[in-house]
Amino acid sequence: MAGGFVGGGEAIAGRAEQYEGKITGYFILACIVGSFGGSLFGYDLGVSSGVTAMDDFLIKFFPEVYARKSAHLHETDYCKYDNQVLTLFTSSLYFAGLVSTFAASHLTRRRGRRATIMVGAVSFFLGGAVNAAAANVAMLIAGRLLLGVGIGFGNQAVPLYLSEIAPYNIRGAVNQLFQLTTCLGILVADVINYFTDKIHPWGWRLSLGLAMGPATAIFVGALFLPETPNSLVEMGRLEEARRVLEKVRGTRKVDAEFEDLREASEAARAVRGTFRSLLAARNRPQLIIGALGIPAFQQLSGMNSILFYSPVIFQSLGFGNSAALYSSIITGSMLVVGALVSMVVVDRLGRRFLFIEAGIQMISSMVVVAVILALKFGHGEELSKGVGTVLVVAICLFVVAYGWSWGPLGWLVPSELFPLEMRSAGQSVVVCVNLFWTAAVAQCFLAAMCHLRWGVFILFAALIVVMSIFVILLLPETKQVPIEEIWMLFDKHWYWKRIVRKDPKYQGHHHHQMAAMPTAAAAAKSGSSEV
User: Who contacts 237 (Cβ-Cβ below 8 Å, separation ≥6)?
Assistant: First the structure.
């Protein structure tokens, strides 16, 4: 046996080195289909913000908003879109997603990640159809609810699917396909809206109905997809899990990784009542950071407000009516750039570095925007070119920083923190908290903007300061750590170790894993030492 084991810690670190595998076509297909799920989410975000600004749509469903909008056409007005029913059209989707993600969690655990993705696709297809045919506000909202269910299921299963199927050393980049495709979805939606806006009076129907395209693609793709090995092990189908693992990794030598999966699954079986185990002391760090903190902060960073605001700002720069399009295409491309940067560096520089760097960049951008708006905006006069340029640059810097930090990491970090026993339950809470805050920010933002004016940006800057401190103090670095070994980071963390060690079950879990490790790892080592 090569290299004896000293103490328990090294034994665990030792197993990851023996994971083998290369990137296979099978794995690439899995990534493509999985990440289409993100594009649906993005398409929907982009389309709804565009459609709610289309005149034909407003005349048909929200005549009073249209009247207010036409009255204030040339003013730099903070309040013209402040209508609670219109906001409900947007948020009903998030509320549906929020409720349905718990049903999705059950399905993800019992029937696997893949089935959940397919159910989401079907629901999405139906929602697109109902929306495209909408004759009144009730139908619109019904369609949105169906889309919301689709998103609840998709967002529950896709990040898990990608995290589990990825080799651990590129897990960050693979998981971020979800964010990248979300951004691409937003960008595509912006471009489509630009053209459908010119088709009167039914252009908006086309925009909403096109969501059926990606939904079909996902469903068909999922028919050919493997279930993740983690999920098969969880359902007790070990032989099949092993076959899938060999296929996805493109090698027969998957002993080390398979052992890790099996052990994690046995530990998971020993724990009943997954939502209850979220509350146990040993899982406190995952609950606070992964399930509550990060998803809430992702929405409270003020990204949505910037996306909403940019058309108004660009309009006052004298871009005229196509302003809204330009601004959304500019911000949309910035998000894509951010996601690409993040994919390249996330497994090298690490998650913490990105959070902290972007925090600084976002705070400074927000302050610049607030100062300029406080001095120059809302007096009905146009901004000078110089001031305008500074604003545009500040907004782009903010968006691109979000695009490589809170945007993608807000999905990546929670999905890698949870141990298998509660990964599915944990991911549900993540989606739920995320959608709850998205809906809350969406419902309150227009009203807040109307009353606080430029103060909104100071508020967001302050929130980002809090978020950054939270990350600096509480989040350990997870890059390059195999997913079933993440829990050890908390055991070494200056603050969390005091809490996780209090849990009576934690010690047992700990020793059990320590004891099981060296034998299996030794077997794997002696097996692979002649390679």
Answer: none
Q: pLDDT digit string (tens) for 418-440?
A: 887 788 788 888 888 988 898 88
* Side chain identity at residue 457, one-letter code: F
Question: The tokens of 47 are what?
Answer: 């389309």
Contact 324, 315 (CB under 8 A): yes
End-to-end CA distance of the chain: 13
CB 160 within 8 A of CB 178: no
C-beta atoms surrounding 213 within 10 Å:
14
Q: What is the mean pLDDT of residues 21-43?
A: 81
- Among 4-13, 248-257, 353-362, the range with the most confident prediction by mean pLDDT is 353-362
Residue closest to 146 by CA, chosen among 135, 161, 134: 134
Q: Is the four-CA dihedral 397, 401, 402, 404 of positive or negative sign?
A: positive
Question: Are the C-beta atoms of residues 295 and 410 closer than 8 Å to each other?
Answer: yes
Task: Check if the beta carbon of residue 398 is closer than 8 Å to that of residue 369.
Answer: yes
Instruction: Give the Å distances, CA to CA, from 85 to 58, 65, 121.
Output: 12, 10, 27
Residue 7, Cβ density class (10 Å: 0-12 exposed, 13-18 middle, ≥19 buried):
exposed
Q: What are the tens digits of pLDDT across the range 1-11?
A: 333 222 233 33
pLDDT higher than 60, residue 520: no
Token couple for 529: 């030492």
Query: What fold is seen in the domain 22-225+271-504?
Result: Growth Hormone; Chain: A; (1.20.1250)
* Structural domain boundaries in the chain: 22-225+271-504
Residue 528 has a pLDDT of 36
Mean pLDDT of 208-218: 88
How far is the C-alpha of 496 from the C-alpha of 51, rounded, in Å?
A: 46
